[in-house]
Write a sequence for this structure.
């Protein structure tokens, strides 16, 4: 019996890697989708390639959608531009969760999910997996459950499959109610090799994670909560002590 098909949004980070592992564990033929959107941490695309191969994705497609032309985010700006806010460093948990950070990329998940929706229709896939979570989401509005619910309603109206009643395309966010530690423990149970993943927003010149941006902070806190060591390399002298 043929496996059901699913599109899995795969950034190369630990959340999306875990979402891919869950899709595979549920018996889906996973079609991984990543984006080269002008992010300064484009190293994550190599991580996505490795994760897709390691977890047995049927294929891995990288689309070019250059969001730098629209601006509005520290993640897509020129780091040398003094007019653009820098990637925040050294923030505590309360500060990270307070307000929308400058690393928010306007409408990014809406753009990505829309393209995933289009690919799912052409593949005949009924499920789209996205690794957002609501507990350690760092203030991003397009990671909340109400956002996913709203996109689901839109998908029901916007697709040929939905209108003709052939199938309902489901937006699956299996990590929504999990902390980073719980996500890491679940992924570890499913065999995710987190040394292949990448989370840092501002990589060091030597290729190490900075250990100080919000994404590094949430990742490190998650590994500590899970009682595990983070297997990736961090910049020497960072707060990781390595």
């Amino acid at each position: 019996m043929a496996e059901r098909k699913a599109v899995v949004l795969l950034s190369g980070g630990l959340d999306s890697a875990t979402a891919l592992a869950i899709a595979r564990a549920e018996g889906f033929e996973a079609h991984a989708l990543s984006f080269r959107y002008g992010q300064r941490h484009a190293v994550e695309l190599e991580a996505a390639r490795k994760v897709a191969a390691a977890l047995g994705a049927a294929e891995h497609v990288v689309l070019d959608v250059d969001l730098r032309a629209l601006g509005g985010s520290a993640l897509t700006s020129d780091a040398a531009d003094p007019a653009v806010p820098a990637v925040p460093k050294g923030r505590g948990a309360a500060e990270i969760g307070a307000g929308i950070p400058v690393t928010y990329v306007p409408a990014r998940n809406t753009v990505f999910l829309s393209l995933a929706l289009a690919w799912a229709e052409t593949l005949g896939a009924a499920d789209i997996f996205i690794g957002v979570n609501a507990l350690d989401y760092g203030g991003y509005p397009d990671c909340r459950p109400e956002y996913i619910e709203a996109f689901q309603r839109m998908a029901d109206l916007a697709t040929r499959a939905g209108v003709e009643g052939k199938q309902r395309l489901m937006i699956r966010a299996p990590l929504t109610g999990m902390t980073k530690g719980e996500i890491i423990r679940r992924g570890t149970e499913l065999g995710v090799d987190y040394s292949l993943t990448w989370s840092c927003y501002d990589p060091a010149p030597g290729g190490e994670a900075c250990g100080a941006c919000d994404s590094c902070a949430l990742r490190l806190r998650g590994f500590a909560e899970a009682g595990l060591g983070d297997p990736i390399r961090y910049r020497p002298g960072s707060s990781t002590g390595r």
